[in-house]
Amino acid sequence: MKDYIKSSEEVVVSSSSLEKLNNQNIEYLVSKAKETQSNKFRLCCHETINDPVHEMFIVHPKDVYIRPHKHIKKAESILVLEGCMDYITFKDSGEIKERVLLGDYNSGNQFYIANKEYSFHSLIIYSDWCVFLEITKGPFIKDETCFAPWSAESKDKKGIKNFMKKYVRQF
Fold first, then answer.
1. Residues 38, 126: Cα–Cα separation, whole Å
2. What average pLDDT does range 96-125 have in this prediction?
3. Which one, of 45, 40, 35, lies nearest residue 131 by Cα?
């Protein structure tokens, strides 16, 4: 669909100089997420990891584990297009600093958040699929993302289960 270049199983990059999205594009991204092992997918609207601004339309499934992390000297903003999630910031000790329920514009929840701190944060997805726009400063340098030392690693099934049990809201 469109002018997307496959970067990995979970990522396509727009090759269009004027990117436009509609509901069909979002449905396409969700369908692509369903085809990946992680059920995650993203469309990068920036051309390379070296671009000064990174704009990404991201799809995450319900109950995905997003390991608490922080970006060194990089703010990020999130705008929810579809679905519902918590955006949680943590103190360095692992205690919750703030929890914000995000949903699309019509949900009545907050639909946009800008995190200008360099604090640990994570997402908890409640809807079957959550589609959001994330914007942050480039370039992407892997070593500038720090994972919380108190958080479960991605292969630690028991640790992830405990994290989800502790932080998932009961509606």
1. 16
2. 96
3. 40
CA dist 30 → 25, 97, 125, 147, 164 (Å): 9, 31, 14, 27, 23
Tokens 């369908």 sit on residue: 31
pLDDT tens, residue by residue, 129-142: 999 999 999 888 88
The pLDDT tens digits of the residues spanning 46-61 come to 988 889 999 999 999 9
Report the candidate in 55, 23, 24 with the shortest Cα–Cα distance to residue 42. 55
The two tokens of residue 164 are: 């989800």
Lookup: tokens for 88: 């949680």
**How many angstroms separate the CA atoms of 115 and 76, rounded?**
5
CB-CB contact of 17 with 3 (8 Å) = no
Which two tokens mark 129?
A: 């699929």
Nearest to 15 by CA among 25, 6, 28, 24: 6
Residues 6+ apart with CB under 8 A from 166: none
Across-strand partners of 69?
Answer: 121, 147
In DSSP notation, 47-92 reads SSTTSSEEEEEEEEETT-----EEETT--EEEEEEESEEEEEEE-T
Question: Other CB atoms closer than 10 Å to residue 131's CB: what's the count?
Answer: 21
Model confidence pTM above 0.85: yes
Residues 16 and 12: their CA atoms lie apart, in Å, by 12
